[in-house]
Write a structure and sequence with these properties.
Elements (H helix, E strand, L loop, with lengths): L2 H21 L5 H17 L14 E4 L5 H10 L6 H5 L29 H20 L11 E6 H5 L1 H13 L4 E7 L2 E2 L2 E2 L8 H8 L2 E5 L5 H13 L5 E6 L22 H11 L12 H31 L1 H10 L5 H5 L2 H4 L6 E2 H15 L3 E5 L3 H4 L18 E3 L4 H14 L3 E7 L3 H14 L4 E5 L17 H6 L5 E3 L4 H13 L5 E4 L4 E2 L14 E4 L9 E5 L3 H14 L4 E5 L3 H6 L2 H7 L7 E8 L4 H4 L4 E5 L8 H7 L4 H14 L2
Parallel strand pairs: 1-2, 2-3, 3-7, 6-7, 9-10, 9-11, 11-12, 12-14, 13-14, 17-18, 17-19, 19-20
Antiparallel strand pairs: 4-5, 8-15, 16-18
Length: about 675
């Protein structure tokens, strides 16, 4: 290691320690221990250009151990990504570009929001899948325009979390050789030495998954780290897992190798001792970086600019030689033409017969696959049930990366993380699927998608007690309320073919919001009054005979809209005139202006009944104190679906009686 390399590695450590100390909050252990491997990677082995952080062929880097964010911020600062010294001084402060954990879309150069440990590992696998697919789609002999690596750095915590095993198992099966994991192995977690809860042979596990495993004994040996990265790149058949043995809190005499270095500032005296131990000039002064450090990083950064220049020349030649492929490339990377899809008669057409919305969703997927060549997706081993297979398209596999049908295996949590990674990579739109009740497994990564504003589509079928014989373990009850509680997630439960098309239109054209399509197993009738108004989240699907003097409003979603319409007819026979509102998406309705909301749900009509075969939690906003719900009050049961709907009160008689009581109480 040259003197300037040593100084530049230590600059990362010192800057990270100073930022954490000023904030009086943070995690210094990882940045101090991992500084050398991060420096070696970014300086000599990773293609990246601060002048164009979104360069399509850049290598991706994810700090899966997001608590060590000052490591990433220091790299971004030194390599010229726009983070200033003042930004570093504002670490963990309100509105700063240096929040406690890295946030995608907030700080330039951050490739993914990493908070929950292991999430970054799953997203890295998704990025590597996207790279492999796009390379298979677009590369031509002599023109490898998609040719980059995905690097992820994480520690013992990331390896303990189950999501990592789920994701790495599939990565090995798929032979994603452009995926390289750097394992910061310091054998320390918050509670102490990892031996108290984590004694497995991690390398053996990774080898069993199908990874090349490499070990670097000294985490400060830049030459050994560099050789390990090059060995990882040389393996064209397997992803690689590099164990780098480090010391948490390296360089701080009182904290090095101790659990106390993990999640608390070193303390002013210990920061000074760190600097003295590292031979840092002026150890009493915070945020003092020698000019030679910046000069060296500036020189290193030129390599990335030169790499992009070479790629731009190659891409220009590619575009000239393969103009049709260039046109496809542009379509893959462009927003979906929302107007064209909205006015596409074939997309909105349907057969006038009863069908399950999961089946209708399958029709939509197969209509979209030709209109959106960038669409790729699959299921957690449930494609035949979820109806998510793209007909005529091959399967994505180690032997066939051009395939568009993804097989995630029974790995819902990692599947959702991989979908995030595919979307973050760019150039692709993705959907994933499972039974609605198993959205519980997916929820943490759905939350990250919403937080990152990623337009991932979730196909969630078997949406109620209509599941039937599988019983309460498979019948979702509280899941709809759970997802509706999440900010920036459109939860869409369609009632028929038109509404299902509307849900897919919403999903396919979304820019910054993920969409959950909540779909039935059982057949539903096509509704005469359904329309594209569903895109407003709620609309009048069946009007009262005298809207100006109606007696009440029935509000339904999904399979219960037709039930509400039947109840409307029954009430009419008893002289009660009610409106039926379909509300497939509460989130969209909440975004409409007040006049439209008043038009659909007039405040003067207080007699309202919501009908939904799931938990009633959350309906108070629309029925008020004077309304009522016909919803599930407990878990389901194991019996045929039609019997369960009767058992739990989803009948014309019960809805009618409930409405009559509410109307009477409001007179």
């Amino acid at each position: 290691m040259s003197n300037i390399d040593t100084t530049c590695v230590n600059a990362i450590r010192v800057l990270a320690a100073d930022a954490i100390q000023k904030a009086k909050s943070g995690h210094p252990g990882l940045p101090l221990g991992s500084a050398a491997m991060a420096y070696e990677l970014w300086a000599r082995h990773m293609k990246h250009n601060a002048g164009n952080p979104k360069w399509a062929n850049r290598d991706r880097f994810i700090l899966s151990g997001g608590h060590g964010s000052t490591l990433l911020y220091s790299l971004l600062h030194f390599f010229g990504y726009g983070l200033t010294l003042d930004d570093m001084k504002q670490f963990r402060q309100d509105g700063s570009l240096t929040p406690g954990h890295p946030e995608y879309g907030h700080t330039v150069g951050v490739e993914a929001t990493t908070g929950p440990l292991g999430a970054g590992m799953g997203m890295a696998v998704g990025m590597a899948m996207a790279e492999a697919h796009l390379a298979a789609e677009f590369n031509r002999p002599g023109y490898d325009i998609v040719d980059h690596y995905t690097f992820a750095l994480g520690g013992d915590g990331c390896m303990m979390e189950g999501i990592s095993s789920e994701a790495f198992s599939l990565a090995g099966t798929l032979g994603l050789s452009k995926l390289i994991i750097l394992y910061d192995s310091n054998k320390i977690s918050i509670e102490g030495n990892t031996d108290i809860a984590f004694t497995e042979n991690v390398q053996a596990r990774m080898a069993a998954f199908g990874f090349q495993t490499i070990t670097v004994e000294d985490g400060n040996d830049l030459d050994a780290i560099g050789k390990a990265i090059e060995a990882a790149k040389a393996d064209k058949e397997r992803p690689s897992f590099i164990t780098v043995k480090t010391q948490i809190g390296y360089g701080c005499p009182a904290k090095q190798g101790k659990a106390s270095a993990h999640g608390e500032p070193l303390g002013e005296e210990n920061v000074k001792a760190l600097k003295e131990n590292l031979g840092w000039p002026d150890p009493d002064k915070a945020f003092s970086i020698p000019e030679e450090v910046y000069a060296h990083y500036h020189e290193l950064a030129k390599r990335g600019a030169e790499a992009e220049k070479e790629w731009n020349e190659l891409f220009a030649q590619y575009s000239e030689k393969f103009p049709e492929e260039r046109a496809r490339w542009d379509k893959f990377h462009a927003p979906v033409d929302a107007d064209a899809l909205l006015n596409d008669e074939e997309f909105w057409s349907y057969e006038d017969k009863a069908q399950a919305t999961r089946s209708l969703s399958g029709v939509m997927i197969n209509r979209l696959k030709d209109k959106l060549p960038q669409l790729i997706g699959g299921s957690a081993d449930l494609a035949p049930s979820n109806k998510t297979h793209m007909n005529g398209e091959s399967d994505f596999s180690k032997e066939n990366y051009v395939g568009r049908n993804l097989h995630f295996g029974i790995r819902e949590l990692a599947m959702a993380a991989m979908a995030n990674g595919i979307t973050l990579h760019g150039g692709l739109r993705t959907y994933i699927a499972t039974f609605f009740v198993f959205s519980d497994y997916m929820k943490p990564m759905m939350r990250l998608a919403a937080l990152m504003k990623l337009p991932v589509t979730y196909v969630l079928t078997h949406d109620s007690i209509g599941v039937g014989e599988d019983g309460p373990t498979h019948e979702p009850i509280e899941q709809l309320a759970m997802l509706r509680a999440m900010p920036n997630l459109n939860v869409f439960r369609p009632a028929d073919a038109t509404e299902t098309a509307a849900g897919w239109y919403l999903a396919a054209t979304a820019d910054q919001t993920p969409t959950a399509l909540v779909l039935t197993r059982q057949n539903l009738p096509q509704l005469a009054g359904s329309s594209k108004e569903a895109l407003k989240g709620a609309y009048v699907v069946s009007e009262a005979k005298d809207a100006a003097n109606m007696d009440g409003i029935l509000i339904g979603t999904g399979s219960e809209v037709s039930l509400a319409i039947e109840a409307q007819a029954a009430l009419a026979k008893e002289g009660l005139d009610v409106r039926v509102v379909s509300m497939p998406c509460m989130e969209l309705f909440a975004q409409q202006d007040a006049s439209y909301q008043e038009q659909v749900l007039p405040r003067s009509v207080r007699a309202r009944v919501a009908v939904e075969a799931l938990s009633g939690f959350g309906w108070g906003k629309y029925i008020g104190f004077d309304g009522a719900v016909v919803c599930m009050e407990g878990f389901g049961a194991s019996a045929p679906g039609p019997l369960l709907f009767k058992k739990f009160g989803f009948t014309v008689e019960h809805v009618t009686e409930t409405a009559k009581k509410v109307i009477a109480a409001n007179r």
